[in-house]
Amino acid sequence: MIKNKYIYQYSTEEWQKGKVFMLQEIYGLKHTHPIVILLNKAIADFEAGKFSYDGATFVKERSKSLFEVAAFIHDWRNSMGYVGKQIDQEMFDIMNVLNYDAPLVFWRFFLTQFTFINVFRHKIMHTFVGKTPNDLYKKPLSKIN
Length: 145
Fold this sequence. Notes:
The chain is mostly helical. The protein has helices at 12-25, 34-47, 69-79, 85-97, 102-111, 115-124. It has one domain (7-124).
């Protein structure tokens, strides 16, 4: 497992490659799509040094890049104290929209069964935000015709 690193601890090349990979992941989504907006907010906060990132926790990333949209947004939320099942569901909704592989989704689902430990940790550290962010992404339900 890689230790959390702030932007200044990554080389410029590492960060640029990671950023390009994440932007490629969302290629095809309109600039007004909620995932694009969330990713841009998370990138801005990362570039401002507001949170550290270490990739997907306890599982492999989507590709060879440490940086990927679902894990990056999930870590960003956690860094702000938003932790819990709704934040985990947001990650799964993002993974679904971006067509992550089923085995990867399964392992992340399995590991989120232990989210209560992270919630407890945040409560002890007094960093837990007990509400849902107002910009939480939820994948729209398909219309049944």
